[in-house]
Write a structure and sequence with these properties.
Chain lengths: ~220, ~220
DNA sequence: ATGATTTACTTAACGGTGTTAAGTTACTAT
DNA sequence: ATAGTAACTTAACACCGTTAAGTAAATCAT
């Protein structure tokens, strides 16, 4: 028994090593420039070995995808102590953009690249209630709950919490993705990250005005 | 003279034909699945011929990029007749998302793909005042001008027009890019395009509340 | 203990990609 | 007529993701 569990462990170790190496290369050079052959070379195995542990390239990046959400939740965790739900909402949007700027390639993988979504489509038909998606659901649920609390306090009168959560996410994602995919430099002379920061502050300002709003 | 002008014309015709074929294939199958060899095969030339007309693959897609902005401006054109600047702003955001949904692949090229930005980086150092970028500038200027008119009318008190324009663009881009890159289906049971539409309406609602806002 | 089977991995190959160096043809100018 | 140029092609390089077939060692069954 102990000998077969050792083998089991070694298999898992190799799988983890492939994943970690993929992550390193991906962080260094991005998705396009990371090849199965590169990964194989760095871990000193033949490229085909990787296919014994992962279905295909998308499958590897789908696994990294999950790690991204774990990290994002770490950025969110301290914010659960912010008592005022509206302050918490603004803190979430700030933490989100900080995460995006500090982990550009990972953000790209999680929210821009098609690849991990393709992997999801291939063998998972359930989508939402898949255990790999748990961390993603947790992150989004935190946002939805915060907005529900805002509404319970009388903010955002007449708005649907889930739609507003998606909309808020869209707004900050818009800033982050334009920054990551280099669309900021083209329209403004400002430093790119400054522009992103100022846009994010403005989103908070707009949310502020919107949540305080009382029809006249 | 007339014989050499004919040759000149034929060269331009072939260049246009390459571009049009690239566009067709790109619209049908997306960026990744469109290869130089595919294009060459369809126009019945050898793949290397394409390199006599375009520097590389990015260069081809950068050219299509420009056409995308021409089309976007066509969506915007009728809106210049909307007299009320705030109504015009909301109409712009609606037209933008309609453009994105009706021309998904083109939108992807213009605002998501890295490729055309790489082409821009390669041989253009001026960036903003490059003639190829004229149509893009026109589209953004239309948004900035509209917001400036809003501010002149007393809306969005205390906000910077350019930053607000960028922020507004970010907000609608966020919705469009999440939809195009398949991140909607994961978080909601709603039909993807419905979700995008509702998010866009909510952005207009938020802008509405924000522009009506008077500090209490 | 020995033969059969399974496990873990590799070699070699397929069909594709973007790109370039060298070669070919046909037209043009002297 | 000949040298030169313009337009295009052939062949190749160095990659890519992926798979079929093969190998060597460990394990299992008799």
């Amino acid at each position: 028994m102990t000998i077969s569990t050792r083998k089991e462990r070694q298999k898992e170790e190799l799988k983890a090593k492939i994943l970690q190496t993929a992550k390193e290369l991906f962080m260094e050079h991005g998705y396009e420039a990371t090849s199965i052959r590169n990964i194989a070379e760095r871990i000193e195995y033949s490229p085909t070995t990787i296919y014994l542990y992962f279905k295909d390239k998308d499958d590897i990046f789908y696994a990294l995808h999950r790690e991204g959400f774990v990290l994002l939740n770490q950025y969110f965790r301290p914010l659960s102590h912010v008592a005022n739900p509206f302050e918490r909402l603004k803190a979430i949007s700030k933490a989100y953009i900080t995460f995006a700027i500090e982990n550009g390639e990972l953000y790209d993988l999680m929210f821009i690249l098609q690849s991990p979504m393709d992997a999801l489509k291939k063998d998972k038909s359930d989508k939402k209630d898949d255990p790999d998606w748990e961390e993603g659901n947790r992150a989004f649920a935190f946002l939805v709950n915060t907005i529900e609390e805002c509404i319970a306090m009388g903010s955002f009168k007449g708005m649907n919490a889930e739609i507003l959560a998606f909309t808020t996410w869209s707004m900050v994602h818009g800033v982050c993705s334009l920054e990551i995919r280099n669309r900021c430099s083209v329209i403004s002379e400002l430093n790119q990250k400054d522009l992103a920061q100022r846009a994010c502050e403005m989103i908070n300002e707009i949310l502020d005005r919107s949540h305080n709003y009382t029809p006249s």
